[in-house]
Amino acid sequence: IGSSAPRYVYELHPDFAAFPTYPVCFLYKGTSFDALPYPPPTMMEFPAPIFKGVKAFLDAEKYVEKVAELPRDGAKLFLSGGVVGIRKKGSGALIDKAFEVTDETGKVYYRIVDGSFQVGARDFRDSGVVSSRAVPPPPGSPTRVVEVPTDARAASLYRLCGDYNPLHVDVGIARRQGFEAPILHGLCTLGHATRGVLDAVAGGDQRRFKSVQMRFASPVLSGQTLLVELWCTSPVEVSFQAKVKETGAICVSHGLMRLNPAASL
Fold first, then answer.
1. How do residues 23-45 score in pLDDT, each as one tens digit?
2. With a threshold of 0.90, does the pTM exceed it?
3. How far apart are CA 14 and CA 24, in angstroms?
4. What distance lies between CA 155 and its chain's CA centroid?
5. Is 30 in contact with 99 (CB distance < 8 Å)?
6. Catalytic-residue membership of 92
């Protein structure tokens, strides 16, 4: 996600911690340290229906809520959940899965809602509950605009988080799915955008992070720069969206970060 902050990259730093969106990798990586097939085994433990006509599978929306800090010295953690809702949206199907990350005592550390989109899906009915909620930016100019560059190798590096979908590295597959080139993982874009907001409003301190939600509006290519526009609507809420600097296209929309209050001195 492009961070060079010592607290996230140096294990002996006094404030060493996982970046707050790190648990989104659990569904892909599981407990493996190896390269994985796609879909990976952990994802297959939480199956979703695949409908007729599907041409591609894309990240659509994400909600990540931190309930408690991940133990710095490690822990045995469990991921539980599954499909909670299916809804027709545009040219396909929006499928929501809801998860909790807990430890052996049942203590909850994270809640995650994963919204995926099956492009071209047809012949299905809406069912369950989809938690998608529009959070348009407030009227007026943003409080601040932050530039967040992505590395030209970002998609290749992000595969190490467990998402080995060839869409993100294979030119032929990307073109067959309608893209000019391999696109950046939606969750990698999420990490970059979240980092840009957290750096701007909380000095990058993961202890201030409470939750984030966003929609993936259009693809990002590795090496492009995100322009993250922020509207600070209260001391603990920030609306945001992100544009690709090179094209002007909105790539992240309906963003909302909630913060824990700053500690009193």
1. 999 999 999 989 999 999 999 99
2. yes
3. 24
4. 14
5. no
6. no
